[in-house]
# Entry
Amino acid sequence: MSCAARARRLDETADIVVLERGEHVSFANCGLPYHVGGEIADAGRLLVQTPESLRAALDLDVRPGHEVVGLDAAARTVTVAVRGGDTEVIGYDALVLSPGARAVRPPIAGLDSPRVRTLRTVGDAVSLRARVDAGATRAVVLGAGFIGLEAAEALAMRGLQVTLIELAPHVLPPLEPELARLVSAELTRLGIVVRTGVAASQVVHGEDSDLVRLADGGAVEADLVVLSAGVRPDTEVFEAAGVACRDGAILVDPHGRTSLPAVWAVGDAVATGDAVTGAVRPVALAGPANRAGRQVADDIVRPGSARSIPAPVGTAIVRAGGLTAALTGANRAGLEAAAITHHTLHLHPNQHAGYFPGATQVHLVVHVGDDGRLLGAQAVGTDGVDKRIDVLATAIRAGLSVADLIDLDLAYAPPYGQAKDAVNLAGMVGENVLNGTLRLWYGEQLDAVRADALVLDVRSVAEYDSGHLPDSLNVPHTELRQRLAEVRDAAAGRPVRVLCASGVRSAIAHRVLAQSGFDSASLSGGMLTLRAVLGDRCDDLLVRTGEFVHA
# Structure
């Protein structure tokens, strides 16, 4: 619809026809879970436009219930199946394909149950809400991606007992594991049962409810099942007509042109190159799709002057209870698959001045290339996450280096930020890592570090007593200069690996140690990140000799 609307604004004389197989056009896909949860009470609010409003405002000929079932590129026609059984052939001068994606249906027996639903259309949302209103009390959500998470939250808000099942090792698979664990904890707080690393194997139909069997032998009763196992491009008709595709996704040039003359494509069905890694795959996000539609219209109506469609950075955000999780650019898995060497920074700054009421931490992960290029960022927190990720997404798009973040002039007042914003701090830490001022070690290296190095804990004695690594030495960072001989004796020639709560004090201690001749490194993100990395191992590994209450 963004393409059709832009084309009309550029050319008042064009004959513009929009074919839509479904009942609704230009509806708010991203708002569907919030209708199920009741925050958007009226389903009509999800309908951004109607055929009548589009005709009145833009003189567009919008035809719901019209499904394209054939394409003849040589004749420049499409064959359309019309609701009611009729078929017609429509000619075109320019054709824009935006078939979107359809829900993946894994090979699970019993998915034909009437209690199994997807959440892709307004009808899906209305149907799900109707089942909840009719008295459903138990729900199973298959898939913990963005839509699955939102569906689980929405159903929990309606008072259902919700079980969220994800085949990947953690919820929100694109999120780094140490951040995903924070999201899992929040879902648990909401009363949602989170099962990761396990697949559903069967949906056993019952008279009034179903039984979802799991591959590990478990089973969950369900009055409704939400299938959210991902999507795949819905392109079979066009691929059969000769449109070049890769793994089902339509290949396009920088202006959205396909392999066929006078045929463009946009949206979830299109394969695009990743802005960071170069990997070619679909990006099922609303923002890039809307902008690409506009730019394709420019290329059709004003050929030669249209801007290229940039590779998407992949910025996304989701709410989970009281937390927000957001990401942009590449994650570790994507960088490793592309063989891009990088450094990972973990920071836990407050979203605004610590002395102002309501200060909370933003848990931030930033990936930086050896050349200083910003490669990706992720954040989880209760406030201020969207602001930081949007700034970092802009920096990635602009090609800024991590050191450039230091100089960003961001808005500051105590209720809104800090004089050194989280983004500025990421730049400072990143620059220190690249120029050798700061050397990091990571929670994933813990077993090797404990075997070969002295772990130096520079937190206060009370913090240390509340939970510390076995065989670690506690020297508060304010006492380190006076106790270097003690550290040297304990290290006995071994490297020293320093940690604190969040990585700030350990960085200070690292500078003292490094300038005193020690082989030193600071734990990225400190104990906050280490606890997330360890997960269930925490309780067994950490030694507690007291309690620490943070004032």
Summary: The mean pLDDT is 95. The longest strand covers residues 362-369.
